[in-house]
Design brief:
Distance between the termini: 133 Å
Largest sheet: 6 strands, antiparallel
Length: 530
């Protein structure tokens, strides 16, 4: 008999051989195999640990023999391929379809082909797609290394990269989409790296520069600049990268030698360490705009010069007008005295002529006064101050002692200036002039919607409907007979408008224009917030 024996007292293992050489004799041989048994236990423990590791790894592991059959397989490979370990060991995987990384079909006698790896004599990685029975595809990364054992040829590890492939495809689609956006964008787009080497050049930039992308990609950025602007342009770009300018104007030299002005907006792209990878810039051709700006500037300069010339001419004309007005007024005063003297001394037809001469002199003086008033309205400062309306009206009523004027209203302050009495002077003068000696004039003031409504009524010949608006225009005298140069009512409306009011004409008796006219206008009431 031969058997193994363990001696507990000695804590040793023995290989025992016992036999009977002759009747009545018994022989026993003992070999101490303790070290061998301990080595076997260690080896068994290692095998169990290796098996545990083999079975628990999330990466699929398989061992193929010389016949390309799977000899060992862990559960992870079955989970990845959706095939049971038993089917893998029995070759059930051979009925599936396999794809290369580019999606084309891959003929294989097994999974994977040993011959594809054994020629490499080293680790070999391939991407293989496994088409399942339901049509879905599992993408795997397969690594194989030859084994030195006699009946085991290849150790194969398989990783599921389906999600990675999906992300890569999504990134590729996104990249293609972004590439299309950049390439077909209407705005010129250019990308250069940290060394100012052009890496991207879209179609719009090709149209701007007339360079093709193939002519500039890989070349330095200074290909786009003329020799005399190159240093300044590169300095601007460098500052924009470090100081984060929002936009810069860069002159671009086209392939045909023409110069274009581009407005660039750029952004830097950094890696995870904060190092500059690239700069992407979007350009806008503003050549026409810059040309228009220069033309506009020239036009503005011309207008400023012309305005200065006009202003100088106006000042000169005003000087001549002042001289003429002064001299004509003096002449009118002398003429008026002689006309008055002639009226007192002359009789009959001569006296009539003297009276007409006197009227003409007065008309000339009135014209001068109106011209002076218009000049004051144009040159006086536009600031309005509280003015006593009652005092302005009373002042002008006193200037017409022979006129029949009725006015009884409480004092009120309105926003105006020192020319306010001129409004009432012209309206009263107009009524007296065209209404005759018997005309009656009424002046009313009332508050209405926070404004002061002023009415100047007269019993004169009235104003026809078709004349009520044009009567305020310059040099319009209406249909009434009498003297006047047509400036009085124009001055009235100019001043009322300046004070922020409006003026219009109504019939004194509605529907009966022949019964007289009413001039109504509004003025802003002076108050705490004025």
């Amino acid at each position: 008999m031969r058997f193994e024996l363990y001696s507990a007292p000695l804590q040793k293992y023995y290989d025992v051989y016992a036999y009977s050489p002759a009747r009545g004799f018994f022989a026993t041989f003992f070999w101490d195999i303790t070290r061998r048994k301990e080595a076997e236990e260690v080896l068994q423990e290692s095998k169990e640990k290796l098996r545990t590791l083999f079975d628990s790894l999330p990466i699929g592991i398989s061992v193929l023999d010389t016949d390309r059959k799977i000899r060992e397989v862990n559960p992870a490979l079955g989970n990845i391929l959706d095939i049971s370990q038993e089917d893998l060991l029995h070759g059930a995987y051979t009925g599936r379809r396999y794809l290369r990384s580019d999606g084309t079909e891959m003929p294989m006698a097994g999974y994977p082909s040993v011959r594809a790896f054994e020629e490499q004599k080293a680790v070999h990685n391939v991407e293989i797609g496994v088409v399942k029975e339901d049509g879905t595809t599992i993408w795997t990364n397969v690594s194989a290394v030859p084994l030195p054992f006699s009946d085991w040829r290849v150790l194969v590890t398989t990783s599921d990269i389906t999600e990675r492939k999906r992300v890569e495809e999504a990134l590729r689609s996104t990249s293609d989409y972004l590439e299309s956006l950049i390439n077909y964008a209407n705005a010129p787009i250019i990308v250069w790296d940290s060394d100012h080497t052009i890496t991207r050049f879209n179609n719009a930039f090709e149209r701007l520069t007339e360079y093709s992308a193939g002519e500039v990609v890989g070349r330095k950025l200074d290909i786009l600049f003329s020799e005399d602007t190159r240093d300044e342009s590169l300095a601007k770009i460098q500052r924009s990268q470090t100081e984060h300018w929002e936009s810069i104007e860069i002159p671009i030299l086209r392939k045909d030698g023409d110069m274009r002005i581009a407005l660039w907006n750029s952004a830097n792209i950094y890696d995870g360490k904060g190092d500059l990878l690239a700069t992407i810039a979007q350009g806008q051709d503003i050549t026409k705009r810059k040309q228009a700006e220069k033309a506009l500037q020239r036009r503005t300069d011309d207008l400023i010069r012309l305005n200065q010339e006009v202003e100088a001419a106006r000042e000169e004309a005003n000087m001549y007008l002042d001289i003429m007005t002064h001299d004509v007024r003096n002449a009118n005063n002398v003429s008026s005295m002689y006309a008055d003297l002639m009226i007192e001394l002359a009789e009959g037809t001569l006296k009539t002529y003297a009276e007409k001469l006197h009227d003409s002199v007065e008309r000339s003086s009135e014209i001068l006064q109106n011209v002076a008033t218009i000049r004051r309205t144009q040159h006086a400062p536009g600031r309005l101050l509280p003015v006593n309306l009652d005092a302005a009206i009373q002042e002008e009523i006193d200037a017409f002692p022979g006129a029949k004027i009725r006015y009884r209203d409480p004092p009120v302050e309105v926003l105006a200036d020192g020319l306010l009495p001129t409004v009432f002077n012209n309206l009263i003068s107009n009524a007296v002039k065209f209404g005759g000696p018997d005309v009656e004039i009424s002046i009313h003031v009332e508050e209405q919607d926070g404004e002061m409504l002023v009415s100047v009524e007269d019993t004169g010949p009235g104003v026809p409907e078709e004349m009520k608006e044009i009567l305020f225009h310059r040099f319009e005298r209406g249909m009434a007979k009498g003297r006047g140069e047509g400036l009085g009512l124009f001055i009235v409306r100019t001043l009322v408008t300046r004070y922020g009011g409006t003026i219009w004409i109504e019939d004194r008796m509605p529907g009966h224009p022949e019964e007289g006219a009413t001039f109504r206008f509004t003025l802003r009431k002076a108050g705490e917030n004025s």
